[in-house]
Amino acid sequence: MSARLAAWAVVLAVALTSPFMSQARPIMGPGGAPQAADATPIVAGPHSNQASPTAGKSVADGLYMTGEFTYVFSSGTATVTLNGVTNDSYTRTTGTLRLSLWALDYTPERGAGITGYRLANFSSLGQLQPRTYYSSIVRSAAYTPPPNGTYWLVLVLNEYNPAGCPGDSDGYCLEDSFVSYSPVVFGPAPSYDYSDLWWKSSEAGWGVAILHHNTNVAFIAWYTYDSFGFPMWYVGDACRFVGNSCTSKLYETLGPPFGPTFNPNAVSVFEVGSITLSFTGRSTGTMSYNVSGSTGFKAITRQPF
Questions:
Q1: Is the separation of the CB atoms in 267 and 258 below 8 Å?
Q2: In the chain, where are the structural domains located?
């Protein structure tokens, strides 16, 4: 289960979503054929003429993206811009390079493997000779949207190297990745922020606390009673909104008494079912649930204060 049951945070990455810059003028190759981008030699010494890679990036092979990226979706086309791609190696010529855009429901570590939806592959950048870089890159391609939901956009730099990643069918290996600062909603967005305490006014004594994050994922804490009348808490850590509804797995937790010696390692978590919240207005909605095979449905409203 996600660590968000204990604590959850937004991880900001290196990408911005501001309007994109102009495309660099293509260099004309032999016979007037345009090259993909301008590969510029890197000046020896301090790299004052390029953006620095994000701190902590391992550049063992010297190949990485620089600066930031932006994106625009319009009429079935995705357009991305990127400040640069650098080959910092003194000896290695890269394979053919390519950018791709992905949608993920988590924020990956930079340059780590990813699991998600590939929205688009962009036309290749060609190869980079030692100590050269591409700058002011702009690429457009038709894209396939992911299932409705909220995702982080990830720009991936791939290098053609079939021997380096034999598990990839097209032979392009992931070399670097940038993550958007903020998530993007595909499909309808929620109409309101549903953060609040919710209840059924005719059944005072139980309720649902909802924390609706700006990623359109909600954390849910349902306080109620078990079949013996004892207090019971259930939690849902990833109720992802599509429109005005979300569904999450439901968990029961057991742990030691709270106090100065609380031991989080003694907490046990059990998946017991699922919960679905659907809202018909800013202050009205329904809650359906399945707890250990027992199903139910409740109309809920915001608690007034």
A1: no
A2: 10-184, 196-302
CA nearest neighbour of 304 among 158, 168, 198, 146: 198
Task: Judge contact between 269 and 182, C-beta under 8 A.
Answer: no
CA separation for the pair 55, 8 (Å, rounded):
23
pLDDT tens digits along 13-52 = 223 233 223 222 222 222 333 333 445 544 332 222 222 3
Q: What gap in Å lies between CA 183 and CA 190, rounded to an integer?
A: 14
**DSSP-assigned beta bridge partners for residue 218:** 212, 239
- Could you tell me the pTM of the whole model? 0.60
User: Do residues 299 and 266 lie in contact, with contact meaning Cβ atoms separated by under 8 Å?
Assistant: no
Q: 212 pairs with which residues across the strands?
A: 218
Here the contacts of 159-162 (C-beta below 8 Å, separation 24 or greater) are 159/63, 159/94, 159/95, 159/96, 159/97, 159/98, 160/95, 160/96, 160/97, 160/98, 161/95
Q: Which amino acid is at 183?
A: P
- Cβ atoms of 97 and 128 closer than 8 Å: yes
Q: Which amino acid is it at 50?
A: Q
Burial zone of 200 (CB within 10 Å; 0-12 exposed, 13-18 middle, 19+ buried): middle
